């Protein structure tokens, strides 16, 4: 057995926002004549996002929504919760934010991401994206110069199922025409990325962020599958290949 395919999460694995959501929302509101505290908007966004994700999972596609409408509603609810009840005043801000989050300048490539992707391709590994993102992802990756590294980009919007649903991983394996035993997934979410890909028989690597990892989670993951940064991936793959050769 030899790993042939690596699938990648994107947000907070390869890319992150240049500034926190609350600050981004506050800046756009100010440009439209509304003064709202960034911290208040940040808290309101997290609440609005959780509620919307629960009521209308995967952008509400199965309930007749589009991903664009879904996000515009999240922005509207965010400002409402932050004390701005005037939906008409918020509508142009929501449109502007939706467009801005398409733009590469809103995002930054995480340190070591490009070098790691190049290193993986140099080894002959095939790379693909499996992300709970919407249709804007292709353009963002292209604008940041990362799209060229991937055979394909599979979003939950395109697939119809979000991670950790096994069907999105099975669809990625079908597109790549590989068995799960020769594929590995890299992401920052224990539930969606690590456990989700493991459940279909893939190998998994968890990118550990700056926040301390829950001790119960940490204790359930082999040390060699934890990546303090993306620069740790290639050595981890070497160790994995060595263990597979011994089987």
UniProtKB/TrEMBL annotation:
Keyword terms: Hydrolase
Pfam families per the UniProt record, alphabetical: Hydrolase (PF00702)
Any Gene Ontology CC annotation: nucleus
CDD domains, alphabetized: HAD_dREG-2_like
Molecular functions (GO terms): hydrolase activity
InterPro entries named among the record's database cross-references: HAD-like_hydrolase_domain, HAD-like_sf, HAD-SF_hydro_IA, HAD-SF_hydro_IA_REG-2-like, HAD-SF_hydro_IA_REG-2-like_cap, HAD_sf
Similarity comment: Belongs to the HAD-like hydrolase superfamily.
PANTHER family: HALOACID DEHALOGENASE-LIKE HYDROLASE DOMAIN-CONTAINING PROTEIN 3 (PTHR46191:SF2), PTHR46191
Protein name: Haloacid dehalogenase-like hydrolase domain-containing protein 3
Organism: Mustela putorius furo
């Amino acid at each position: 057995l030899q790993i042939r395919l690596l699938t990648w999460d994107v947000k907070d694995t390869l890319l992150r926002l240049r500034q926190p959501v609350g600050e981004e929302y506050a800046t756009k509101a100010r440009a439209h004549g509304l003064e709202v505290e960034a911290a208040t908007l940040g808290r309101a966004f997290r609440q609005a996002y959780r509620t919307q994700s629960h009521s209308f999972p995967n952008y509400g596609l199965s309930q007749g929504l589009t991903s664009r409408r879904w996000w515009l509603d999240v922005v509207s609810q965010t400002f409402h919760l932050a004390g701005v009840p005037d939906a008409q005043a918020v509508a142009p801000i929501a449109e502007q934010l939706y467009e801005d989050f398409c733009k590469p300048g809103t995002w930054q490539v995480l340190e070591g991401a490009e070098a790691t992707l190049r290193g993986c391709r140099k080894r002959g590994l095939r790379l693909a994206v499996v992300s709970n993102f919407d249709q804007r992802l292709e353009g963002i990756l292209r604008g940041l110069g990362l799209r060229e590294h991937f055979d394909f980009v599979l979003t939950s919007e395109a697939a119809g199922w979000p991670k950790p649903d096994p069907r999105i991983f099975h669809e990625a394996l079908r597109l790549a025409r590989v068995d799960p035993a020769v594929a590995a997934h890299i992401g920052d979410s224990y539930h969606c990325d690590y456990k989700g890909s493991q459940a279909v028989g893939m190998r998994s690597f968890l990118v550990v962020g700056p926040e301390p990892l829950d001790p119960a989670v940490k204790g359930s993951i082999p040390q060699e599958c934890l990546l303090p940064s993306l620069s740790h991936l290639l050595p981890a793959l070497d160790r994995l290949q060595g263990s597979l050769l011994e089987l």
